[in-house]
Queue: 3 jobs
Job 1
Amino acid sequence: GQQVMQIPQYQHVQEGEDFTTYCNSSTTLSNIQWYKQRPGGHPVFLIQLVKSGEVKKQKRLTFQFGEAKKNSSLHITATQTTDVGTYFCAGRSSASKIIFGSGTRLSIRP
Amino acid sequence: GAVVSQHPSRVICKSGTSVKIECRSLDFQATTMFWYRQFPKKSLMLMATSNEGSKATYEQGVEKDKFLINHASLTLSTLTVTSAHPEDSSFYICSADSPGAGYTFGSGTRLTVV
């Protein structure tokens, strides 16, 4: 069945350093979404990528969708303590089912 | 923006009893809602897709008779954990596909079965 792998599982960075999480699907995706879940909270939608090779930015966050629509990345420039949380990718297959990646937990040293 | 309200946020129940969790879309209609289970520090596991006016679609390995789902209106889906046992203790969370906003999640329900 469809699988969505996400790496790394954990990332601990110094405040101000950059952070990247990667998402890989076993099948071609129709779109991919990214979510952020703060500790004790629920996932919050960040963005959706649809087009092959698409790049979108939200302030310090840069999202990319691979040319083959099977991988994606989220890059945070100059992390801040407010960036702490778990970042999930969620890939939608042609069958319209969304599969969540395992998540990357980001922690930050002030 | 789209809001999904989920109640209760926390519930403690005795083993063998049933617990109902409600998920409401407040400012949009959702013909489809999704129920997830999340273990500590783990990802979201899709349990079932709730379809308004018809039977829910359960993922492989999810017991239909234990996790009863009802989606009686375009704004309300309920998940009932029947004959709960301690191993059912978990964080249950619903979501709906909101227009232009990806999945909007409820705030989740932390179930503890004692």
Note: The interface with chain B takes residues 33, 35, 41-45, 47-48, 88, 90, 97-103, 105 of chain A (CB under 8 Å).
Job 2
Amino acid sequence: GENVEQHPSTLSVQEGDSAVIKCTYSDSASNYFPWYKQELGKRPQLIIDIRSNVGEKKDQRIAVTLNKTAKHFSLHITETQPEDSAVYFCAASDDKIIFGKGTRLHILP
Amino acid sequence: DTGVSQDPRHKITKRGQNVTFRCDPISEHNRLYWYRQTLGQGPEFLTYFQNEAQLEKSRLLSDRFSAERPKGSFSTLEIQRTEQGDSAMYLCASLRELGNTEAFFGQGTRLTVV
């Protein structure tokens, strides 16, 4: 079945620096790749997504890239701020949505 | 509140008891998903529905777990003969199936089996 691997599990970056989280997926039928942010005690919320017919998408400080051939996709956060501290999940979907195990991002002052 | 709602928010039960959780999706959403999340882990897929049809159930899921969505609106997840290992947050998500749109999550039901 579909498997989504996410790295790293924990990431600490200095405020203002960039953060990159990488995911790989196994099911070549996957055609939709959302990223969710989950703050402590709250529900996951979508921050950005990308579809299989696009290689890159950007929304202000957040960007996602997709390499369908390699089955890789990545989240890039630039100019990190304290409020970016959270757990981030990647996911891959054809119909069912399969999540990675998450990356805990710490923004250091 | 027009978001996804789950009930109850918290449930404490004794081992061996049965529990049932409810999820009310956003009204026009025809896809509904159930996930289990333990501390420090990502949402683990359990099952999903398109309208009232259950399309897939995780192969890792014990037969003590069953889910229904009888009229294609709300859904229930039942766990029979609960075990301590069932303790987790159970999340429901829904989306409107038109070319993979955003899935919205409920706040979850936190189950503690003692």
Note: Chain B touches chain A at residues 33, 35, 40-45, 48, 50, 55-56, 59, 91, 93, 99-100, 102-108 (CB under 8 Å).
Job 3
Amino acid sequence: AQSVTQPDIHITVSEGASLELRCNYSYGATPYLFWYVQSPGQGLQLLLKYFSGDTLVQGIKGFEAEFKRSQSSFNLRKPSVHWSDAAEYFCAVGSPNQAGTALIFGKGTTLSVSS
Amino acid sequence: DVKVTQSSRYLVKRTGEKVFLECVQDMDHENMFWYRQDPGLGLRLIYFSYDVKMKEKGDIPEGYSVSREKKERFSLILESASTNQTSMYLCASRAYTGELFFGEGSRLTVL
């Protein structure tokens, strides 16, 4: 079955420290991979996406993610976290054959930033 | 800029009422989606539509229906609202490049 697992429900990081949010997926073929961020009371905003090619992708707000096929992982990283990064983060997978298909989302990781 | 607009940010309804949640996108996307978001459960797909008048059930369609009369508009309908439908509802449309664009969400409370 297709699924996305975000093992960490809640993470607290000190401001200025590095961040890594984990994402593992189960999918029949190499999927499209996405990370979204959601601030309280808001919709989801796309941080970055991977379709093919270079396995290290850069996104907005200084985030990057690395696709590792052998580990079925797509972890999100940021070298130095800012207080404004506190939010909920969702990993998602989708079919390259996109017609009539939806993205599958993980349950999310809540990031808190301490000063 | 890409825009997905949900008509109501906050709604309070009574049990048994009929509820309409409207969503409009201005990007000429063919695929549109309704998700429900609850704490600890992430986003769960209710229905999606891949063309005008076409719809497919998602993972949790019970108690919901949808309407897509025009390409830009996708409505979610709760025929008889129940308290267990209190939730955040998110509409999205899918770009030809694969990613979803989301609206701001509609927080529904059913009393």
Note: The two ends of chain B are 37 Å apart (CA to CA).
